[in-house]
Specification:
With 224 residues, the chain is an alpha+beta fold. 34% of the residues lie in helices and 28% in strands. The chain starts with a strand and ends in a 14-residue tail after the last helix.
Length: 224
C-alpha cells in the first residue's frame, strides 16, 4: 500500500524521497533522511525503527548493501518489510520480504531506487524512475515530484492513494524541504500545490536560519 522513490542528486549530493500510500500520514513513518549520509525507506508492513537503523549503519561506515543486510538480520519479521536505501556514493540496495503485499517490486535508476507494494502493476515503478530521470526541472524536488506524478499516471496503487510526502536534505542538518499531505482525496494535486508554494521561499528560510541579519521580511503584518 506504498510506493516511494529515494534518490541522491549527483550534482549536489542532496538526498530526497517522495512517497505515497493508501494509508494516512505515510511520510511520518516511512521516509528517512540524513544529510551527508543517505536516504532510506521502511515500508509495506512498516517498522518505523528500521529507517533510522539503516541510516545509522551508513553513518557508521556501511555501504548500502551492508546496511540493508544488517537491518534485515536485526528484524525477526523482515519477511513483512520492504526497505530501500541510497548511500553517500549513490549506491542503492533493497529488500522485499516474501510477505510483502499484493504486486510488489523495485526499480533501480542512477543513484535512485523506487519500491512499491499493492501496485496496479510493476510498470508503475519503471515509470517512477523514468519520470524522475527524464525530468528537465532544475530543482531536485521538482524532479522527485515528476517521478511521483509519472507513477500515478501509470496506475499507482491498486486502490486509492490518500497520503504523500516529499522531503530533501542538503548541507544543513535539517530537512530543507519537508512537505506532507497526511490525508486527501487528491494527495498528488495537493503535494504539487505545496511544492509550488514552498520552492520560491525555500532559500529565504535557509537565510533566516544561517544568516538572520540578512533575513528577508516574512511579508506579514507586524514584520516591518
Amino acid at each position: 500500500m506504498t510506493f516511494s522513490l529515494a534518490a541522491r542528486d549527483p550534482a549536489t549530493g542532496a538526498f530526497g524521497m517522495v512517497i505515497s500510500s493508501s494509508s494516512p500520514a505515510v511520510a511520518s513513518r516511512c521516509l528517512n533522511l540524513r544529510a551527508g549520509v543517505g536516504v532510506a525507506a521502511s515500508q509495506n508492513v512498516t517498522n518505523p525503527a528500521l529507517g533510522p537503523l539503516l541510516l545509522d549503519g551508513l553513518e557508521a561506515g556501511a555501504d548500502a548493501d551492508s546496511a540493508i543486510a544488517a537491518a534485515v538480520a536485526a528484524d525477526p519479521f523482515s519477511d513483512y518489510r520492504q526497505l530501500t536505501v541510497v548511500d553517500a556514493e549513490g549506491r542503492v540496495a533493497m529488500h522485499s520480504g516474501t510477505q510483502a503485499l499484493g504486486i510488489f517490486g523495485v526499480a533501480v535508476g542512477d543513484h535512485a531506487v523506487a519500491a512499491g507494494n499493492m501496485l496496479s502493476g510493476l510498470d508503475v515503478l519503471d515509470a517512477m524512475v523514468g519520470g524522475y530521470a527524464s525530468s528537465g526541472a532544475e530543482a531536485f524536488e521538482e524532479r522527485l515530484l515528476a517521478g511521483f506524478l509519472s507513477a500515478i499516471e501509470a496506475g499507482g496503487e491498486a486502490g486509492p492513494v490518500r497520503s504523500a510526502g516529499l522531503a530533501v536534505v542538503e548541507d544543513a542538518s535539517w530537512r530543507v524541504t519537508d512537505l506532507r499531505v497526511d490525508d486527501s482525496d487528491d494527495p498528488a494535486g495537493e503535494l504539487t500545490r505545496l511544492l509550488a508554494l514552498w520552492l520560491p521561499q525555500k532559500n529565504d528560510y535557509l537565510v533566516r536560519a544561517l544568516r538572520p541579519g540578512n533575513a528577508p521580511s516574512y511579508g506579514v503584518p507586524g514584520d516591518e
